[in-house]
């Protein structure tokens, strides 16, 4: 695709990756993704903001075919899906300098084979005149690496945010169709940004202090109505959790499955919504999205070789790493002759803001006493949600 003009002298470049289905060998990409770069031309200087994944370097170089000179390549973020084409761009433009935060400079030089004398650090708030328009660099660390910054063009009221506000969505839409992008953007937030939500909450105040008419991220479409994505982020990072239970589970011979079915029914009867995930068929991105708003996690597991099922251990580690707003958690499941399923799982998911509710473990098939214990767990969850104002 050829460069597309956003406004006079600002062009959207980069590559759509329709076929990519996994990021970081971890994150499912059901809708593909894009690696957006932007060309900003002043009357004297030209800057390229970010590059593309190394697999798409040819696309970017073709888009730059009619660009005779680049003075600066701004590397907002050192991860290779944005920085990986830097060596090729520097080779094409021998006078171009890379600009990054000081930490960004260090990481770029660690990750890529770049000439150190061509990578310069910029300060927070530093301005770069291109002639007629000026780029201002704003540090926003930990969205989602420690070195990240964004760029603001006051004259054009454009904010270039790299990963922040991005969406893994392959589309030819230059501007976001809000109804279409909401779910991919929330999935992106859940998988990439949620662990840093407390910092992002502070960063949002910085973003809101800028007069912005366009947010241009480096994944997915551009936001022509910045309030759409800023308000969505405000909700995801700071709104109280909702009256919802997330229930990832595995069942091997049906006993844990019977317990899950009973608990889901009991919670629904008490007005508590449940999102149930059989981990043998679960898209981990969907599980991550469900964690954005949920108040409670209940993990269902059989006991295998003395501990929780490995798929459940994996899900528990994912929950712990994503650091959602969860306030309550419990474990249910069945065992044959003993084991450490509860201890192992609570050891993974525990943190000071999480109240662990009594687990319900049964020996073999669940029976009347076990179903009564699940009803009591449903009562405890429903009353905690009500007392906490989540209903
Ligand atoms: Fe899109 Fe953190 O890279």
Main attributes of the structure:
391 residues, alpha/beta, Metallo-beta-lactamase, Chain A, Rossmann fold, 2 domains, seven-stranded mixed sheet, 12 helices, 34% helix, binds MU-OXO-diiron
Task: Kindly describe this structure.
There is one protein chain. By secondary structure, this protein is of the alpha/beta class. It has 2 domains: 4-238, 4-Layer Sandwich (Metallo-beta-lactamase, Chain A), CATH 3.60.15.10; 246-381, Rossmann fold. Helices cover 34% and strands 26% of the residues. It is built from 12 helices and 21 strands. Strand 6 (46-49), helix 1 and strand 7 form a beta-alpha-beta unit. The termini are far apart. The structure holds MU-OXO-diiron (FEO). The site of MU-OXO-diiron (FEO) has 8 residues, from helix 2. MU-OXO-diiron is lined by residues 77, 79, 81-82, 144, 163, 218-219.
Topology, element by element:
Elements lengths: L3 E4 L2 E8 L4 E2 L3 E2 L4 E9 L4 E4 L7 H7 L8 E3 L5 H4 L2 H7 L4 E4 L1 H10 L7 E3 L5 E3 L4 E6 L9 E5 L4 E5 L15 H16 L3 H12 L5 E4 L8 H13 L3 E8 L5 H15 L3 E6 L5 H8 L2 E11 L2 E2 L1 H13 L5 E8 L5 H9 L5 E2 L3 E4 L4 H20 L4
Parallel strand pairs: 6-7, 7-8, 8-9, 13-14, 15-16, 15-17, 17-19, 19-20, 19-21
Antiparallel strand pairs: 1-2, 2-5, 3-4, 5-6, 10-11, 11-12, 12-13, 17-18
Helix pairs in contact: 5-7, 5-9, 6-7, 8-12, 10-11
The structure holds MU-OXO-diiron (FEO).
The site of MU-OXO-diiron has 8 residues, from helix 2.
